[in-house]
Design brief:
The structure holds two protein chains of two kinds.
Chain A: E1 5-7, E2 10-13, E3 19-24, E4 31-37, E5 43-50, E6 53-56, E7 65-69, E8 75-79, E9 88-95, E10 105-106, E11 110-114
Parallel strand pairs in A: 2-11
Antiparallel strand pairs in A: 1-3, 3-8, 4-5, 4-9, 5-6, 7-8, 9-10, 9-11
Chain B: E1 4-6, E2 9-13, E3 18-24, E4 31-37, E5 43-50, E6 55-58, E7 61-66, E8 71-76, E9 85-92, E10 100-102, E11 106-111
Parallel strand pairs in B: 2-11
Antiparallel strand pairs in B: 1-3, 3-8, 4-5, 4-9, 6-7, 7-8, 9-10, 9-11
The chains are: A mainly beta, B mainly beta.
Chain lengths: 115, 112
């Protein structure tokens, strides 16, 4: 079956512009996660959705970052007024959360470069 | 806060065993995971272990868990060049949302 997909795969933007990153989770997965992977760093948790609600937004690095999820499926991560330190790979993962193992399945990521 | 530590690099010869080590801090972690990331790709779940287990074997992969020392290891037997990748150790956050806390990853290089 189809895995997690993300678009675009690469995005180059100028400092100060807004960007939207999209994630299509595996069908039927109720939980969705966004992470950020910076060069030489591990993965940094950003936000988690259970259904359409985000119980915990504390991982978002600043108020320039926001995310939404509609229909319990597609999610969009928006970064306003991008800064060079926002350059990273943004990874999305989904989880069925029914097995008790809470395994997460990752998309290929969106590589964001802010010039 | 919770933290996961791994060594950054490991180099082995093809056919040898690789052992990647990880330490974690959250004693309430119920599951620990190993992910593999090949260049330009997302993370692929390799295996996981439940915290009440000491060992789990899955084909060439062996996971050892020392809960007392909060130490996790991944052994890859008969390492192949296709195993070259970054390996991430992760623990499940003890909170309710289930997000994972990752180490910085160990880059495994396999020399022919």
């Amino acid at each position: 079956g189809a895995g997690v997909s993300q678009s675009p795969s690469n995005k180059v933007t100028e400092k100060g512009k807004d960007v939207e990153l999209r994630c299509d989770p595996i069908s039927g997965h109720t939980a969705l996660y966004w992470y950020r992977q910076s060069l030489g760093q591990g993965l940094e948790f950003l936000i988690y959705f259970q259904g359409n609600s985000a119980p915990d937004k504390s991982g978002l690095p600043s108020d320039r970052f926001s995310a939404e999820r509609t229909g319990g499926s597609v999610s969009t991560l928006t970064i306003q007024r991008t800064q060079q330190e926002d350059s990273a790979v943004y990874l999305c993962a989904s989880s069925p959360r029914t097995s008790g193992i809470y395994e997460q399945y990752f998309g290929p990521g969106t590589r964001l470069t802010v010039t | 806060g919770e933290d996961v530590e791994q060594s950054l690099f490991l180099s082995v010869r093809e056919g040898d065993s690789s052992v990647i080590n990880c330490t974690y801090t959250d004693s309430s972690s119920t599951y620990l995971y190993w992910y593999k990331q090949e260049p330009g790709a997302g993370l692929q779940l390799l295996t996981y272990i439940f915290s009440n287990m000491d060992m789990k074997q899955d084909q060439r992969l062996t996971v050892l868990l020392n809960k007392k020392d909060k130490h996790l290891s991944l052994r890859i037997a008969d390492t192949q060049t296709g195993d070259s990748a970054i390996y991430f150790c992760a623990e499940r956050d003890g909170g309710s949302q289930g997000n994972l806390i990752f180490g910085k990853g160990t880059k495994l290089s396999v020399k022919p």
